[in-house]
What does this fold into?
Amino acid sequence: VARANRGWMDGFNIDFEPENGDTPTVTDAMSFASFLDQFARALHAEGFNLTVDIANWSPLFIDSLLAQTQVDRFITMSTYTVNISRFEEIVKDKLEAYGTRKAGIGMETLAKFTGADAKARLDAVRTAGIDTVGIWMTPLPDGWIAPIKAFVNDP
It folds into this structure.
């Protein structure tokens, strides 16, 4: 929290990906959710926010536990490289778990999606009523700028 108080940031994003070593347990997931809740509360007390990147591939990220925390937004990485049908399923799942206020959808630029693919994904996010998209990796591929501008400018 002291780092945030230096005046040059709005809060923190946690991107913790426990992919090497022991598989996280339910107890680990409960401890992680508790830590996130305590950290979010401390940040909020100072006027800052907390976002957290999550994914379906790790048992550390239990939606029902995380949704109960004071974290401002959860951004799923599970949508990075999947086809549009699976993308839409995950968007629906995260909407049900977190609601429009706390759900965020990740998009990855390395997956070689076209501008039309990006538009279809952003349309699915907009249709779900989710207003936050996290884009991993720049530069943006050709054709992505127009759909992103439309998403941002046409609520």
About this structure: The two ends are 32 Å apart (CA to CA).
